[in-house]
Amino acid sequence: MSTAPAPYPIGTPGTPWGEAERAEWLSRQTRHRSYESEVLSVIERLGTRFDVEEYGHLNYGHETYPLMAIRSRDWRDNLPVVLITGGVHGYETSGVHGALQFVDQHAGDYAGRVNLLVAPCVSPWAYERIHRWNAHAVDPNRSFRDDSQAEESAALMRLVAPIRDRALLHLDLHETTDTDESEFRPALAARDGKPFEPGGIPDGFYLVDDSNNPQPEFQQAVIKAVEPITHIAPADDKGEIFGSPVVARGVIEYPIEQLGLCASVTNAPYRTTTEVYPDSPRATPEQCNAAQAAAVCAAIDYALAHR
Fold first, then answer.
1. Can you tell me the distance from the alpha carbon of 100 to that of 106, in angstroms, rounded to the nearest whole number?
2. CATH H-level, domain 19-305: superfamily
3. Which of 33, 53, 80, 241 could bond 168 through an S-S bridge, CB–CB 3.0 to 4.6 Å?
4. Measured distance CA(78)–CA(113) in Å, rounded
């Protein structure tokens, strides 16, 4: 016989959080890793080959985080623009390090062919705490709106504004983890005063297309490139992944602008959100990073061939 999940340890079931609950949640967050040593140091080294800029900074208490972007050094206005984002959810590690690996190992292959703009760690406070939300218990990846309540999201939107209508491609690099089910979805339900409904975690890599502008051939080109590196998530017994119908192998669709997702920050004809599964016994951190980098390469190759 199944048992109901235990109530989330913060708040009263059925009642949305107020300031006291958010403060209690914040007091429980612990710094586990260093944005400076693991991310900024890599960006600094890449600065010998690429242009690096600070596009904003976060102030959370006594902590300040510079928000950094990497650009092609040979930027030319007549070239198509490719936007790569990672770490919108700070706990999704391969989104950050896969973006950096792409720049280090593959970006040079596209010199003179595209203008690259890469924001590898959109949410550094959450990166250090291995969390989904920012310090205000706000999800940056539901906050890409003109009235954004997340400075991480607002800063990226300001960075991207000049190329919003010029971008050919945007890849937003994410992970789906076991902690989505054990921590982050229960926390979301508690924060919003809603019941938590347990679900399943898809075992493998998948993509999220834009339901208002689907590009099925583009999505499958990315799936094909990633499959030799890590396995593709199958549909569940309802033909779904995370409650959304699987429209093609390894692909679901969301209304990205309606949901305020990062993939909506440009009007690029080619947009996708990658979802790597790092908790599989069949996947190593190295494979997860390589899968993200391969997805970027395949996406750029397809977009250039079909523009």
1. 10
2. Zn peptidases (3.40.630.10)
3. 80
4. 10
The DSSP-derived string for 233-258 is PPP-TTSEETTEE--BTTEEEE-HHH
Q: Go through the chain and tell me how many residues it has.
A: 307
HSE, CB side, 13 Å, CA atoms: give it for residue 42: 19
Is the distance from CB of 223 to CB of 294 less than 8 angstroms? no
- What gap in Å lies between CA 51 and CA 190, rounded to an integer? 42
Per-residue confidence (pLDDT) for residue 1, from 0 to 100 = 40
Tell me the pLDDT tens digit for each residue of 230-284. Answer: 999 999 999 999 899 999 999 999 999 999 999 999 999 999 999 999 999 999 9
One-letter amino acid at 58 equals L
The domain ranges of the chain are 19-305
User: Strand 244-245 to strand 206-210: parallel, antiparallel, or no bridges (unpaired)?
Assistant: unpaired
Between CA 282 and CA 280 the distance in angstroms is: 5
For residue 14, is pLDDT > 70? yes
How far is it, in rounded angstroms, from Cα 87 to Cα 124?
A: 7
3-state secondary structure of 286: helix
List the beta bridge partners of residue 173. 86, 274
First to last CA, the chain: 55
How buried is residue 142: exposed, middle or buried, by Cβ count under 10 Å (0-12/13-18/19+)? middle
Do 215 and 306 form a contact (C-beta atoms < 8 A)?
A: no
* CA distances for 23 relative to 8, 10, 95, 133, 267, angstroms: 15, 10, 28, 14, 37
Whether the Cβ atoms of residue 282 and residue 58 lie closer than 8 Å to each other: no
Amino acid of residue 281:
P
* CB-CB contact of 85 with 296 (8 Å): no
Tokens describing residue 260: 């305020």
Task: With CA atoms as reference, report the closest residue to 91 among 227, 241, 279.
Answer: 279
| Farthest CA pair distance, the chain | 63
Helices and strands of the chain, counted as H and E runs? 11, 10
